[in-house]
Design goal:
about 130 residues; alpha+beta; four-stranded mixed β-sheet; about 25% strand; globular
């Protein structure tokens, strides 16, 4: 497959479809709500096998993954390889790129991402 000049367009186009499997979810993570350093794509192959999910992760330290043409082409190739019919994604960064229990202890806040320490990852609002 040749590189596509605007892979984000095709990813978002698949997000507008309403029915069908396989379905992909795309989630962006970063140290704050402006810079996405990680993207995770999960693919559910069928309605009957919702516990069987394929997951791929991409990382970038210097360029926002949402605007990285190489990463977006790789996401598109991953989606097309598994014949994804629709895609679900949110329009924002939804949390820290580090994984609880892997990068830092369970039930603790990520020491590398203080921005998310007291913030709701879905709304971005501060939690008291």
């Amino acid at each position: 497959m040749f590189p596509i000049s605007n892979p984000s367009y095709w990813i978002q186009k698949k997000a507008k479809r309403k029915t069908g499997y396989p379905i992909a979810t795309i989630a962006y993570y970063g140290p704050n709500d402006r810079f996405a350093s990680k993207v995770v794509v999960g693919i559910i192959l069928s309605e009957k096998d919702t516990d069987q999910v394929l997951i791929e992760k991409w990382f970038s330290g210097n360029q926002d993954v949402r605007h990285d043409v190489v990463i977006n082409n790789q996401i598109l190739q991953f989606i097309e390889k598994h014949k994804v019919v629709r895609t679900g994604m949110v329009d924002r960064i939804i949390g820290c790129p580090h994984e609880e229990g892997i990068d830092y202890p369970l039930d603790e806040k990520c020491p590398q991402c203080p921005f998310w320490a007291n913030r709701d990852r879905w709304t971005g609002e501060i939690i008291e």
